[in-house]
Design brief:
The chain is α+β, with helices and mostly antiparallel strands. Helix 1 crosses helix 6. It is about 20% helix and about 30% strand. The strands form 5 sheets. A 6-stranded mixed sheet has the order 12-13-14-11-3-15. It has a 6-stranded antiparallel β-barrel with strand order 16-19-18-17-20-21. Strands 5-6-7-4-10 form a 5-stranded antiparallel sheet, covered by helices on one side.
Length: about 375
């Protein structure tokens, strides 16, 4: 994927080397002001580095139902959801968001998304899905060159959509289309799947109507606050859906016939997961911060793994972490490795409920 043309917008700063958000703007000069605009009004984020797959054909829903973790046989036109691909042990291979509109299911996922093939090797997500078609009447294509993702975040999102002539779908994951744009309501904000050749035009149109440009720095901080996991950052090669709040959200516990379903059902019905994803408040006095993959320590003992690390405009430095379920919520923790170890405290509001929801109060407040 080539760099986004939005990087040519005045003030756009590219993401640093090694960032999963390379190719799109990291910020536009003031990431904290961008976050405040998203919390109080509305901001637009370039997420055009995400990959898209289009699924068509008369058996698209029945076939998808067999290969992903979500129940989609009755996914209505104008509806969306989240879903996973699991390996045979129930560990998460890939996460995707769906939008069903006009006889096409659009899957958008992380750049470089992959899955475990039938023989154990790693394949791109598209290659894996193609290998599972067999005789089903479906067609798949790489749609990354066709459409790009822009995200709107903030309480004024619906007003902005109206001003730009786009629909404002009601309800979680509701989908609508106009002017060649697919609009999908998300737990945090609204996603627009715009024609890629019109990406700059839609960016200009949205910003001219009042959306503040926001980079991935700000978007990631709001995602972490809302406790929304991200593949490869908040997951490792042992992660099961229950640990990161994807049961019910992206993995159906009652339907059978998908790889890894036995683990999903067993953990849901007879036990708690070995780890749970929590929000950590980090000591902001040192100049250093932990990095993704660093350990979470209780005394000298490793009790978790650091995931996404962010600097929030109100909360300061925060992180998502997979922490052993046995760790007390008031434990005095440290996060980091080598010379970047800082004190960390668990946010008690981040403790998942018995039935996972779609995020904490921040997600509801930021839903556009």
């Amino acid at each position: 994927m080539t760099d986004s043309p939005i990087l040519d917008v005045p003030g756009a700063v590219p993401a640093p080397d090694g960032s999963p958000d390379q190719g799109v703007p990291w910020h536009f000069g003031d990431p904290f002001a961008e976050q405040r605009a998203a919390a109080r009004k509305v901001a637009v984020v370039d997420r055009s580095h995400r990959e898209l797959i289009a699924v068509t054909g008369p058996e698209r829903l029945a076939w998808l139902h067999l290969v992903i973790s979500q129940h989609v046989t009755e996914l209505a036109d104008g509806a969306g959801t989240e879903a996973l691909v699991l390996d045979s042990q129930g560990r998460v291979d890939a996460h995707m968001v769906l939008a069903h509109l006009d006889e096409t299911v659009w899957l958008d996922t992380e750049a470089g998304a992959h899955a475990t093939g039938a023989r154990g090797g790693r394949q791109s997500l598209l290659e894996y899905l193609e290998s599972m078609v067999f005789w089903s009447k479906v067609e798949l294509r790489d749609a990354t060159a066709e459409r790009a993702v822009l995200s709107l975040v903030g309480p004024d999102t619906d007003d902005l959509l109206t001003r730009t002539g786009l629909p404002a779908p009601a309800g979680p994951y509701a989908v609508a289309g106009a002017e060649g744009v697919i609009v999908r309501r998300m737990p945090v904000g609204v996603d627009l799947l715009v024609p890629r050749d019109s990406l700059t035009g839609w960016w200009d149109r949205l910003t001219s109507e009042g959306a503040r440009p926001m980079g991935s720095w700000g978007y990631e901080a709001l995602r972490v606050e809302a406790i929304r996991p991200r593949m490869e950052l908040d997951t490792d090669d042992r992660t099961i859906p229950h640990e990161v709040g994807w049961v019910h959200v992206a993995a159906h516990v009652a339907k059978g016939c998908y790889r890894g379903q036995e683990t999903v059902s067993k953990v849901h019905n007879v036990g708690r997961p070995p780890r749970r994803m929590l929000l950590l408040h980090l000591d902001g006095s040192p100049e250093v911060q932990p990095e993704t993959g660093d350990p979470v320590l209780l005394g000298e003992r490793t009790v978790g793994r650091v995931g996404s690390v962010a600097r929030h405009h109100e909360l300061g430095p925060i992180a998502l972490a997979l922490v052993k379920s046995s760790v007390p919520l008031d434990a005095e923790l440290h996060a980091g490795a080598e010379d970047r170890v800082v004190q960390a405290a668990i946010d008690p509001d981040s403790v998942p409920e018995a039935t996972p929801g779609l995020g904490r109060e921040a997600a509801r407040r930021l839903r556009g």
